[in-house]
Design brief:
alpha/beta; 13% strand; Rossmann fold; six-stranded parallel beta sheet; 2 domains
Amino acid sequence: MKILLCCPIVPTKELGMSKVLLELAEELQKLGWLCKVLSPTDISPDIVRYSKEKYQQYYAESLRNYLHKYASDYDIIEYEHLYLPYPISEVSQATLFVARSVLLVHHQETIPIPTPNNWRGKMGKLIKGASRKAQIQSWISSATTTVKEADLVNVSNDDDKTELIRRGIPAEKIVVIPFGISRSRRPLFDAVSSVPPAQPTVAFIGTFDSRKGANDLPRIVQYISEALPDVKFRLLGASYKTEKEVMSHFNINKKLIHKIQVIPKFHSEELPQLLASCSVGIFPSYLEGFGFGVLEMLAASLPVIAYNAPGPPMMLPPEYLVPRGDIKGMSDKVITLLQDREKLTAARIWAKQRSQQFSWQRVAQITSETYLRFLEFKRAVNKQQSESKEESGYE
């Protein structure tokens, strides 16, 4: 079987969206699939020069043209849920078309992301608020058409499925398949001890932006520090921000600066060792597709306290979740764990065990079985319809 995985960004394992496709492709190939991960530059070499506003439309049109030429070469074609708002019947009748959501855009209409409570944040909301809202509505329109046209919709959490059903997508064409840790990275995480480190350290993984809870982090750090004066914090993966830009968020309390270590960029293989000296994790994200950071912290024996937002509940029990924006609630749960070494040890053992339920090997097996089942059904229906037309014409 041949599968085409269409990636809307230049593929790299350092970014969640493309990481999903690259690691899935590796495991599908081990199951005997012929896989191709399609980069935007494969369909249009000059696409990277387009601005964010024009990129979506240009990529969607380029992908449509590409599939007109090559779709029939593949049994399965998978693509991001924003980028194929066209009738798939115009492309290929024999191919199964799967719309994947790595971060479901529809949630952005119902889950508010707080803006920074400063003059810059307020001015940005005032100046760009209307255009941002219009942009989201445009995304939702494209995404809704894309998922309606698809044969199958692949989401990574239960909240996504609920939201799509609410918007009229039939439940039977939506599958929930979470993500995993690759077999090459698993030994690196397994090498991390479940014994709590002597120095209490709280970890955070994620781009340092409003959706990920960057506006809440200074107060979380302050609350925890007031209860535990010797606690440290390690912020990993700010990516597009420098250490100085991240630290500027904590200037409201300069006494906290010495407690915080910022590591903006790292290779994925380095992450287990960066987490090895950490005690617990926090994940104050308002919206996720799955939450790779949560899974990676769990794999490194870190129990994680997260907002009850789409994504993390796929991995975490209710006692590790707090309502979105509940800064004190999150801080109190972290403090409780750090103050009780016996409880923390048990939580760290549980965290590693829980993470082992999420592997790309298992995900690929489920994905393979699901896609083949839907492909067989589509081709059977097409055959039946073709035979019915032939009989009708004969009569």
